[in-house]
Design goal:
It is a single chain. With 315 residues, the protein is of the alpha/beta class. It folds into two domains: 3-237, Alpha-Beta Complex (Spore Coat Polysaccharide Biosynthesis Protein SpsA, Chain A); 241-305. The protein has helices at residues 16-21, 41-48, 64-78, 98-106, 129-146, 163-166, 180-190, 213-238, 243-271, 278-304; strands spanning 3-9, 29-34, 54-58, 83-86, 112-116, 159-162, 195-199. A seven-stranded mixed sheet has the order 3-2-1-4-6-5-7, sandwiched between helices. α7 runs parallel beside α8 (213-238). The longest helix has 29 residues, at 243-271.
Length: 315
C-alpha cells in the first residue's frame, strides 16, 4: 500500500522542517498544506526542504485545520494513496509513531486510527489541567454523539485513515475548524467505519492551552446535539430498524406522556388546593419508569452496536 502524510501548516515555520526530516522511509508522499500562513511556511519549505517526497499545497484563504487536511486528503486520493496520516506541523506529534498508527490498517483490522493520550496515567502529568478536564468531558460527549463508545480523546489530531473509508465521507460537509476531529468521528460512524485508539504520550512544551472551555461549550454543544440526532436517525431509522428503534420510540412516547400527564395533574390539583390522588400519581409514574427502562435498553444496545467489519474488506 502507498502511504502519505498530510501536515497542515499555520505558524509552524520554526518546527516544520524538523517534523519533515523525522518522517521515516515507510512514507511515500508528504503533503505540506500552507493554510494561508502569515509566516509563509509553505514557501519556506519550498526553499529549504531537501526531501523529494514533499509536495507543498497552498490555500488561498485560511480554512482552518479541517480545510487544510481536506485539501491534503483530496490530493492524496487523486495520487492513489491507500493510507493517509495526519500530523501537525508544530512538532508535538512524534513521526516515529507512524508505523504504530498504520499497522492495524495495513493488517485489514480497522479503517481509522487516532491517538489517545489518556491511556497511560503517567503521560498525563505534564498535560495542563484545562486540557485534562476539557478532553475528559469532550470524550464522553463524543461517545454519545458519534457512537464510538470505546474511543477517548476525540480532539487528538494524530490520525490515519484508509482510502476506502475516506472516499465514503462527504468531505465538503466536514467541519473545517476546531470541530474537525469530532466531526470526523461522527461522519465515520455514519458509514460504519471501524475505529481504534492508538496509545501515545502527551507532549507539551511551554505554550499556553488553546482550549477555551467557554468557547467549546458555546460552539460545540449545538454541533454535538445535531450530530447525535442525525446519528440516531441514520443508524436506527434510515439504514436499519431493529429492537433499539422500537425501544427508542416507545420509551420516548412513554416518558413524554408520563411527564406531561404528571405536570398537568399536579398543576390542576395545586390550583384546586387538593392532594393529587394516588391513582393519578401512578398513571404518571408507571409510564415514566417503563419509558426510562426502555431508553436504558436502547442505550445498552447502542453501546454494543460498534462497527466490527472494516470498510476496506469490501474493496
Amino acid at each position: 500500500m502507498k502511504v502519505a502524510v498530510v501536515i497542515p501548516c499555520y505558524k509552524v515555520k520554526k518546527q516544520i522542517l524538523t517534523v519533515i526530516t523525522s518522517i521515516g522511509s515507510e512514507i511515500d508522499k508528504i503533503y505540506v498544506v500552507d493554510d494561508c500562513c502569515p509566516d509563509k511556511s509553505g514557501q519556506f519549505v519550498l526553499d529549504e526542504n531537501k526531501d523529494s517526497r514533499v509536495e507543498v499545497l497552498f490555500n488561498a484563504i485560511n480554512t482552518g485545520v479541517g480545510g487544510a487536511v481536506m485539501h491534503g486528503y483530496t490530493e492524496a486520493l487523486q495520487a492513489g494513496m491507500d493510507i493517509i496520516i495526519k500530523i501537525d506541523g508544530d512538532g508535538q506529534m512524534d513521526p516515529a509513531l507512524i508505523p504504530r498508527f498504520i499497522k492495524p490498517i495495513l493488517n485489514g483490522q480497522v479503517d481509522y486510527t487516532k491517538g489517545n493520550r489518556f491511556n497511560r496515567i503517567e503521560s498525563l502529568i505534564d498535560m495542563p489541567i484545562v486540557r485534562k478536564t476539557g478532553n475528559a468531558i469532550l470524550s464522553f460527549v463524543n461517545k454519545v454523539s458519534s457512537g464510538y463508545w470505546k474511543v477517548m480523546d476525540p480532539t487528538n489530531g494524530y490520525t490515519a485513515i484508509h482510502r476506502s473509508a475516506l472516499q465514503q465521507l462527504p468531505m465538503d460537509k466536514i467541519s473545517q475548524r476546531y470541530f474537525f476531529e469530532s466531526d470526523m468521528l461522527f461522519r465515520l460512524g455514519t458509514v460504519r467505519a471501524v475505529v481504534r485508539d492508538i496509545p501515545m504520550d502527551a507532549k507539551y512544551e511551554d505554550e499556553e492551552s488553546s482550549l477555551d472551555i467557554k468557547k467549546v461549550i458555546v460552539e460545540f454543544t449545538p454541533l454535538y446535539i445535531k450530530a447525535f440526532h442525525k446519528r440516531v436517525f441514520y443508524t436506527y431509522f434510515l439504514r436499519d430498524f431493529n429492537v433499539a428503534s422500537i425501544e427508542l420510540i416507545l420509551g420516548t412516547l412513554l416518558v413524554i406522556f408520563g411527564v406531561s400527564f404528571g405536570v398537568s395533574s399536579w398543576i390542576e390539583s395545586a390550583s384546586a388546593s387538593i392532594a393529587t390522588p394516588t391513582g393519578t400519581i401512578m398513571i404518571a409514574a408507571l409510564p415514566l419508569i417503563m419509558g426510562f427502562q426502555l431508553l436504558l435498553n436502547a442505550l445498552h444496545y447502542d453501546v454494543t452496536n460498534i462497527p466490527v467489519l472494516p470498510l476496506q474488506t469490501f474493496d
